[in-house]
Amino acid sequence: MNGEINQRLEKIEAVLDTWLPKTPDSGWASRVFPGLAPEFLTDLTVPCRDLLSRGGKRWRPLLMTLVCETLGGGDAALPLSPLVEFCHNASLIHDDIEDNSDQRRGGPAIHLVYGTDTAINSGSFFYFLPLACADAWDVPAERKARLFGVWGEYMRRLHLGQSMDIRWHRDFDSLPGLEAYYTMCGLKTGCLARLAAVLGVLAALPEAGPQAGEAAELMGAAAEKLGVGFQILDDVKNLRTGLPGKKRGDDVVEGKKSLPVLLYLHGGSGQRQALVSRCFSRARTGGVSVPEVEELIGALETAGALERALEQGNALIQEAADTFAAPSIAGIRTGEESRRLLAGLIGLIS
Known about the structure:
- The protein has a single domain, classed as Farnesyl Diphosphate Synthase.
- The model has no long low-confidence stretch (mean pLDDT 91).
- Helix 4 runs parallel beside helix 11 (190-204) and helix 5 (81-98) runs parallel beside helix 9 (141-170).
- It is mainly α and 350 residues long.
- The protein is 73% helix and 2% strand.
- It starts with a helix and ends with a helix.
- The chain has helices at 2-19, 26-32, 42-53, 59-70, 81-98, 110-114, 116-128, 130-136, 141-170, 178-188, 190-204, 210-240, 250-254, 259-266, 270-286, 291-302, 305-324, 336-349; strands spanning 103-104, 107-108, 328-329, 332-333.
């Protein structure tokens, strides 16, 4: 199975390289900036290429292509890979600035390497670059218009989710409800996974209609659950063992109202709120090495909040897996081989 997944990942990587080459040439420049010499574009492209070259699981474009395959569309979604992967990387550049993060994927955050002004500008460019890819998609104008409409809707959702998250981690004393948390996480994190699935459906089913709409809703909802579940597992790992390329306890320094923190706060008295606020405040000024980081992680572990969050994250991923394993979606028979690979994808990212 890994060989089959890797074959698809290689194809995805080739598409990403086409739209963001290691060294911009006149051919690339003419597609993105007609009439402009490539040497003018270096300040835009180098920071983006730096982050992209550090790795990443590429599971969102892989999910998109597998959804398309499952519905009988073959490789039709492959040219759209930048619409999810570039936007994901753009969000990481901006997110690290907003959170004052110092590491990403094993290296310094992009704004620390190139300066905040260049990072903001390059991150914004990274959001809009995929539109050149979408414009080049060789389909009728009506179908392309649907693609642009879908992309715009999900970019608005993504930024709304980020806005909610920023508001919460700025105010240490705020206590969002669990329902509000899932709304925020669905927008900020689940959004691009849902976009990937919806684009997979759009690529597989050329005709708009009730069946295509139902398939997009079912696959999109499952993908959003997968994205949210993946985020919850990441948040637990951040507090227990740390994540590759990031420091253990970074989320405490950020003041992140992750699911483990909210489960802890909603399951106790005001004393818990005081402890979280104190630990967040001390970590914000002193970094991950201050003892309050370990104090808060220990409190979350002792209260069972980390384990409960882990259970909820795994439950969401299982719900997504059940949908993707269905022999039919919206009355469309799904391919057995593609369903097997979707299950393999879920195993890789969870």
